[in-house]
Write a structure and sequence with these properties.
heterodimer, A: 557 residues, alpha/beta, Dimethylsulfoxide Reductase, domain 2, Rossmann fold, Barwin-like endoglucanases, 3 domains, six-stranded mixed barrel, 19 strands, B: 348 residues, alpha+beta, Ubiquitin-like (UB roll), Alpha-Beta Plaits, N-terminal domain of TfIIb, 4 domains, five-stranded mixed β-sheet, 16 strands, 22% helix, elongated
């Protein structure tokens, strides 16, 4: 997020696009509801009439995969109405003229045709966002999990630059990060192209810095992303993997292809709390400690680094994740037994891997990571700190880009609408879009082991528009078979106008209805993110005994 | 503009718009309250905070009275104390004498006030309420409206903190009661099971259901930590008793969320002690997992990975793990395994 969560109180207009905020980031959702209660305007743009749409000033339903057309169209209207921030554009941005040539072609009529949104609604949205400032945009995987994910984000940034809604309170471009520590994992270099703090592995100076700190020569070659690891395993190029706390057999697109890849590996280590679908495929399973059993830090979506504190001893023989990996590292660098003959001798000392505490590791991170430079456990003890925190005196940075952008001037980037990788056709006439619900989390390894959450949401429900349901003679709670080019799933229908005609929605929480057996592995060429929000499916009524099931869904009926 | 007033003979400076209650508390004067909570709008329902103010008739509720220049306030005159005792006595006439087994014991604001003013519970001959105990099917929130004092903190917490408006007050007079929606179940009224109502309830009328009977407030060790679910970064207190995480309670100092939590954050921790937890390293032999020692498992890993260095190895780190752990994962991959193939589920 460019702005902090508390800053939501300063918004006059909020645009939520591709984020089911009240279910996926519930406490940010409550803050947005409070802002609306206090008079802020809310626009919700989503293929589904999600719960928060009920309190929106304006809800617009774009066809899945048409966000660029929508965002370009809003920009075109803002220009047409003279609502752009000319001073901001002149002083803080570049690339405006080239961008203008592309955006001008997104006339309201054309955008309405691509997105399915009424022209009047486009005008209302544009006038609200650009006219009732400051305005903030909130987005999540609904924007990024597309083959155009990277460009979708650029289109959002363009809109914020055009209206000067950056670098000030109540404004901003706010991606809501999904996992508790996905921001932190990226920050500390759990990425194939970056060391900590987004220092590039292909950058000689950065590599030199880390080689000096770590005492070994480092590869200048960018590594593989998750999707590439799976493809590599299938192709026999990746032979061994170590997976910590991820259930790829359920969470990644095209599950059959993922399971085949894991089975092909010579050696798979999975470090987990539970025997997940992925752990079942491993050669060695290591029992890990949960968040309640360890010390450390998580970095949240507003870049706030906060403490995680050990409340209980690890269960059974469980060990903390970093201790396990350090232990293996010590064994590997200290014993010639584990050296491959002919490979270069290890230059690391085993002592390199002797850390006394998580705090000692954080001190090493801080010494190598400019954004975390000022972090100490003492400083973040009470309230955390928001990076960048370049030094020990720096108070942290709630709002980014107040004076200038990371690259200097903000760059307008011309981006064009592009259809998803797989569109509905005669054989697979529906669009499947996927996500999560309030009561469960990801593949359910944790939440499906909480009795009350299971009671609230015991099974998958396919959201199906009432008109489509009527045409197929499907009643609420009746069984469906949903199939794609890659697989099929059986689940009950939830007949609801949350989804528009021709669109169905499913979650990936339930192993017994493995939604990712259906999804497409097509990825965005730059971000390498899979298009989990759009694939083509066939939906059929399934004759199967239907029992009453208690199912409570937020906003359900 | 600061406002000057006198509280119990002492000159006090307050901010314009502050209530007398806030000004008194800021100056170190304790005034008991039940319906008041600093996070919620003041309603002046319980009257326990009454004070005497010069040139004002009768006793005035301090929580809804704005400070004004030259105001002279007395917070503990005999008249005030008598009034507070009377209010508490009246509340007890329709409150079960159940502190011995009440889950809220030790964390009950009514109990604290009754103790402070030494009011005795007496057998009351008049009408009492008799609501069904645990009458709502919500799996996480326990209701016993016989212990409700109609302070409406649940109503305000749901509306003002959670933005959901599940709770309301129905009827008038003695028949006043807290209802979900139009007197339906909480879930039918659109409840998201966030538990804010229970967190703000000053008595045992609304409680966390899964942790009932597993220990009281004063038996818990509280450890402040950050939630393991989404990226909002809510903080809360893990309540630990005998090495077990019993429940999660809001921590008002939490930087991001204050008292607010969602259903997963407040109630989604049962997995920690679930019987399915892996507790021993496992090595697959002939297709089945066999328990192993850490030494066996880690030596096997070291041996196998030793033969797979470079780009034939890949590490899938975790957005569920800490910063420190992810740092170690990528350092291990880059230095020991000699490849940059380390990633996590940032794209999923």
């Amino acid at each position: 997020m460019t702005n902090n969560i508390a800053d939501i109180d300063n918004c006059k207009t909020m645009l939520i696009i591709g984020s089911n905020t009240t279910e996926q980031h519930p406490v940010i959702g409550t803050r947005i509801r409070r802002a609306v209660r206090n008079g802020a305007k809310l626009i919700v743009a989503d293929p589904r009439a999600i719960d928060v749409a009920n309190m929106a000033t304006l809800y617009i339903r774009q066809r899945p995969g048409t966000d660029i057309a929508l965002l370009n169209g809003l920009a075109q209207i803002i220009l047409q109405e003279g609502l752009e921030d000319k001073e901001f554009i002149a002083q803080r941005t570049e690339g405006f003229d080239a961008w203008l040539k592309v955006v001008e072609t997104y006339t309201p009529a054309r955008v309405s045709e691509i997105t399915g949104i009424a022209v009047d609604d486009l005008f209302t949205a544009a006038r609200l966002y650009a006219g009732n400032k400051p305005s903030a945009i909130f987005y999540a995987m609904g924007i990024t999990q597309h083959t155009t994910g990277h460009n979708n984000v650029l289109a959002i940034a363009n809109l914020a630059l055009l209206t000067g809604n950056l670098g000030k309170p109540g404004a901003g471009v706010n991606p809501l990060r999904g996992q508790n520590n996905v921001q932190g994992s990226c920050d500390v270099g759990a990425l194939p192209n970056y060391f900590t703090g987004y220092q590039r592995v292909i950058d000689d100076a950065a590599r030199e810095k880390f080689q000096k700190a770590w005492g070994v020569e480092l590869s200048p070659k960018v590594g593989l992303t998750v999707g590439e690891m799976i493809k590599g395993a299938n192709a026999g190029q990746v032979r061994a993997m170590w997976i910590v706390g991820e259930n790829v057999a359920m969470s990644d697109p095209d599950s059959h292809h993922v399971v085949a890849a894991m089975n092909k590996l010579d050696f798979l280590v999975v470090q987990e709390l539970f025997m997940t679908e992925t752990a079942e495929l491993a050669d060695v399973v290591l029992p890990a400690a949960s968040f309640a059993e360890k010390d450390g830090t998580f970095t949240n979506t507003e870049r706030r680094i906060q403490r995680v504190r050990k409340a209980i001893e690890p269960i059974g023989d469980c060990r903390v994740d970093w201790e396990i990996v350090c232990d293996v590292a010590r064994r590997m660098v200290s014993s010639s037994k584990f050296q491959v003959s002919g490979s270069e001798p290890e230059t690391m000392e085993p002592e390199t891997w002797n850390y006394d505490s998580a705090e000692e590791i954080m001190n090493e991170i801080a010494s190598l990571t400019p954004q975390y430079g000022g972090v100490t456990y003492a400083r973040i003890d009470a309230k955390g700190l928001q990076w960048p925190i370049p030094n020990k005196e720096h108070p942290g940075t709630p709002i980014l880009h107040t004076q200038q952008f990371t690259r200097g001037k903000g760059m307008f980037s011309a981006v064009e609408h592009q259809e998803p990788a797989e569109s509905p056709d005669a054989a697979f006439p529906f669009t499947l879009t996927t996500g999560r619900i309030l009561q469960h989390y990801h593949t359910g390894a944790m939440t499906r082991r909480v009795a009350g959450l299971e009671q609230l949401a015991p099974e998958e429900r396919v959201e199906l528009n009432p008109d489509d349901a009527a045409q197929m003679n499907v009643g609420d709670g009746e069984w469906l078979r949903v199939s794609s080019r890659r697989g099929e799933v059986q689940a009950r229908a939830w007949v609801t106008d949350r989804v528009g005609r021709g669109v169905v929605f499913m979650t990936f929480h339930y192993a017994e209805a493995l939604t990712n057996a259906l999804t497409n592995t097509a990825v965005d060429p730059i971000a390498k993110i899979p298009e989990l929000k759009v694939c083509a499916v066939k939906v059929e009524k399934l004759e199967r005994e239907t029992q009453e099931s208690m199912f409570v869904m937020v906003g359900g009926k | 503009m600061p406002v000057n007033l006198t509280i119990n003979g002492k000159a006090v400076q307050a901010r314009a718009g502050q209530s007398v209650l806030e000004a008194a508390r800021a100056s170190g004067v304790h005034i008991p309250t039940l319906c008041h909570h600093a996070d919620l709008s003041p309603v002046g329902a319980c009257r326990l905070c009454v004070v005497e103010v010069e040139k004002m008739r009768g006793l005035v509720a301090a929580c809804t009275l704005p400070v004004s220049e030259g105001m002279v306030v007395q917070t503990h005159t005999p008249k005030v104390i008598d009034e507070r005792k009377f209010i508490l006595e009246m509340l007890l006439t329709d409150h079960p004498n159940d502190c011995m087994t009440c889950q809220a014991d030790g964390g009950c604001e009514l109990q604290d006030a009754v103790y402070e003013y030494q009011v005795k519970w007496s057998e009351h001959k008049g009408k009492r309420h008799s609501y069904p105990i645990d009458g709502d099917p919500n799996p996480f929130i326990f209701t016993n409206f016989n212990k409700c004092i109609l302070c409406t903190r649940c109503v305000r917490a749901c509306a003002e903190i959670q933005g959901r408006n599940v709770w309301g007050v129905a009827n008038r007079g003695f028949n006043d009661k807290i209802v979900a929606g139009a007197d339906v179940t909480m879930l039918e009224a659109g409840c998201e099971s966030c538990g804010a109502c229970a967190a703000y309830c000053p008595t045992g009328a609304l409680l966390d259901k899964p942790s009932r009977g597993k220990g009281r407030e004063y038996q818990m060790k509280k450890v402040t930590t950050t939630c393991t679910y989404c990226g909002v970064g809510c903080q809360f207190d893990l309540n630990v008793r005998n090495g077990q995480v019993i429940k999660v309670t809001s921590n008002r100092n939490a930087a991001v969320n204050g008292m607010a939590l969602c259903v997963k954050g407040r109630y989604g921790h049962e997995f920690i002690h679930h019987k399915d937890r892996l507790t021993k390293p496992l090595i697959k032999k002939d297709g089945t997992f066999v328990e192993a020692t850490w030494d066996e498992a880690l030596n096997l890993i070291a041996e196998k990975l030793g033969g797979c260095k470079g780009d034939q190895f890949a590490f899938l780190a975790s957005a569920k793990a800490t910063n420190e752990e992810n740092y170690i994962f990528q350092k291990f991959t880059r230095t020991v395994m000699r490849t940059n193939s380390v990633d996590h589920c940032a794209r999923l």
